[in-house]
Every structure is written in C-alpha cells, then in structure tokens.
Amino acid sequence: MKISKDFDGGNIEVLDASDPENIRLNIEPDNKSDFYQWFYYRVDDASGKALNMHLENAGGAAFTGGWDDYRACASYDNETWFRVKTVYDDGTLTISHTPSHDTVYYAYFAPYPMSLHRDLIDVYGSMDGIEHEVLGKTLDGQDLDLLYIPGGEKIIWVDARQHPGETMAQWWMEGFLERLTDVENKKSIALREKASFYIVPNMNPDGSVRGNLRTNAAGANLNREWGVATMERSPEVALVMAKMKQTGVDLSLDVHGDEALPYNFIAGAEGVPAFEAKDQAKLDKFKAAYVQATPAFQTKYGYPVTAPGKANLTYATTWTAHTFGCLAMTLEMPFKDDANHPDEMTGWSPERAAQLGYDVIPAMLAVVDDL
Questions:
Q1: Could you tell me if 240 and 159 are in contact, meaning their C-beta atoms sit under 8 angstroms apart?
Q2: Which of 174, 225, 259, 332 does the annotation list as catalytic?
Q3: Fewest beta carbons less than 10 Å away: which of 43, 56, 79, 227?
Q4: What angle do CA 203, 206, 210 make, to 5 degrees?
Q5: Using CA of residue 118, residue 120, residue 123, residue 127, what is the dihedral sign?
Q6: For 24-74, what is each residue's pLDDT tens digit?
C-alpha cells in the first residue's frame, strides 16, 4: 500500500502507513503560514482493506469547528466524489473506509485542479463575445485569468478562490458561467443587456497547486490584502484592484467556502463607513431573490453583522463597497453539507455548488436596475 500527494493540490504527511488499520498522517501547513486544514491524497493497493486513517494534528487546524459533523470526500476516479465515515475526537480526525478499488483519493472537499481551470478558461475564453485577459503573473509565474463578458452599462465583478482550499467556489463558477453564457436563457439575456461582467474564476492559482488552505506563494491570506496589496506579497489582489479602478464596480460577489457553518449564505458590507439604508435595501433585495431562486440558499444563518463603521477594509467585500460605493457581498458555502437539505451520499458537492452558481442569475437580475 502506498500513500502519495505528488499531484496538483496534494497535501498530506505520512507518519506511518505500515498498518492499514492504523495509518498515521498529518496535514501539512500552508507554505510560510500556520494555516492548515486542506488535505488531498491518494492511496494505492487499497482494495478490500479496512483503512483507518488518523490525521493526528487536526486539533491544530485553522478552524476546528469545521470537524464537527464533517465527513471526508472520497473518489475512485478523481471525478465522482462521495462521503465516508469520519470522526473527530481528542484532536485527531479519523477517516474510516474500505475501498472497492485499488486506487482511492481522499480530500477535504472535491478538488478543482488547475487542469480543470485551464479547461474552463479555454472553453469560455474562446466563445464569441467573450474576451480572455491575463491580468498578470503570480509569484510562481502562473497566469491570473480574467474573463470579460461585455453587455450593458452596469459593471459586475465576480471572483472565487481567494482561499484556494475553498474549491466549492470554483465549482460554483462552472454553473454561473454556464447560465450566464446561455444565449437561450431569458434571464441571462436580460441580465447581459443591462450589465457587463469581469470574472476571475481562480484568484489564487499558486495556493491551488501547492495544496494550501488559505494563502498564496508568499503566505499571504488574500482576503486580508485589499487596499494594502503589493506585487511582492499579493500580486493577485494588486492586479484585480488595479483593473477594478479602471472599470469601476456596481456589484461585486466574492465566492468562498465556510468550514464550520452547514449553510449557504451571504455576508454583506454593513460595517463599512457610509453604509446607508439604500445599501441595505439592495442587499436585502438580492438575498430575497436568491432565496426565491433556490431552496439551497437561506438567510437565517450566517455571520454576525459588523457594527456600523467597524468593518475591516482589507477584505474584498468591504474594500470594494467602501471604494466604489457599490453592492458588495461575500457568498459562503459549506464544506460539510447543506443542513437544510442533507445528502447522505455526497454532502455539499460540486454539482450542488454549480447549481447554486446557476441559480444566482435571477438574484443579480433583481437588483441590476438599482445599482
């Protein structure tokens, strides 16, 4: 039996794999950072073996609340993912599974490798009426890709995966782009007549390849770099900020995943200076329309609302709202499951995340005239 992580996004440290029923592992921290929680590894020669895999340093992970009621993802082909028995106890996360195939992958959430990202860019960047632009290079020399979809005068920005381990955010992008570019979808046609789109499907290519949870190649948490980013530390944010200042922003949606909360929800920019009743009305209208579009979205559970004037302006949503006076929001999805609509087999999954992306179009359409 062999355990490996030598592929795009892989992360695990093998302490002892001599006994399949007592495999000892550690999650490796993000480079130049203390953050860790993302894991992704392959086990070979595993068929029929009762694997008990103990992630012994889980108690020091970035968000230990993320382990409560959590079940790890598994796949035999790196495409179809399902959930397996997982128990968190006394600082150790134990994954128990008897594979039916020789090769099996385990991950914190279904990965979205850079090969899929490149396919996404190739597909949509080659469509008529869509422009692909490389905003610049990351610290590891990767392209920071932007898709521009021209249309009406309102300017909508959408980005995902500032935190690379939040792969559900890029699965969300697949559904969003599918519907937005559907030339026969009436709501998408109506929205594109009113708005133009700037879309960054993966804000953190370096962290994605390195198997990081939250940081880039310099160890920077990109969602704490807005307004202070430099090309030496966080070029991804610096490049997007510069482009935003060229285009302006009327609506911004920053797509994430949340480790602890088993719900889909929106965090707004209520705490920024000069947030007014009209801003609250647009935020409420967007969320209400999203609820109407899909039962997977809800407004009962989420983050506490920041007090007026107390927002941290180094977050993407707060910086964008403060800088442009626009409707700016953060969308959060679960690593675990949608507690309102649980699925024992898959939990929250790539397919469900993509559907949530597909279903955001009516919410954008509901507010576009108010922007």
A1: yes
A2: 332
A3: 79
A4: 130
A5: negative
A6: 999 999 999 999 999 999 999 999 999 999 999 999 999 999 999 999 999
* Alpha-carbon span 350 to 366, nearest angstrom: 26
What's the average model confidence in pLDDT over 61-89?
98
pLDDT in tens, 202-228: 999 999 999 999 999 999 999 999 999
DSSP 134: E
Q: Which two structure tokens, joined as six digits, stand for 309?
A: 């004037």
Q: CA 338, CA 360: separation in Å to the nearest integer?
A: 17
146 falls in which pLDDT band (50, 70, 90)?
very high
Helices (H), the chain: 114-125, 168-180, 186-194, 205-210, 235-247, 277-293, 316-324, 350-358, 361-367
Beta bridge partners of 278: none
CA angle at 284 for the pair 278 and 286, rounded to the nearest 5°? 105
Q: In the Cβ-directed half-sphere of 144, how many Cα atoms lie within 13 Å? A: 27
Dist. CA 320–CA 353, nearest whole Å: 24
The CATH number of domain 114-370 is 3.40.630.10:
yes
- Select 2-107's CATH number: 3.60.40.10, 3.30.720.200, 2.60.40.3120, 3.40.50.300: 2.60.40.3120
CA distances, 288 to each of 179, 225, 284, 319, 333 (Å)? 20, 30, 6, 24, 17
CA 355 to chain centre: 14
CB 281 within 8 A of CB 311: no
Please give the Cα distance from 38 to 62 (Å, whole number): 10
332 is annotated as an active-site residue:
yes
Helices (H) and strands (E) in the chain, counts: 9, 17
Domain boundaries defined on the chain: 2-107, 114-370
CA 30 – CA 43 distance, rounded (Å): 22
Q: How confident is the model over 250-275, as pLDDT tens digits?
A: 999 999 999 999 999 999 999 999 99
299 falls in which pLDDT band (50, 70, 90)? very high
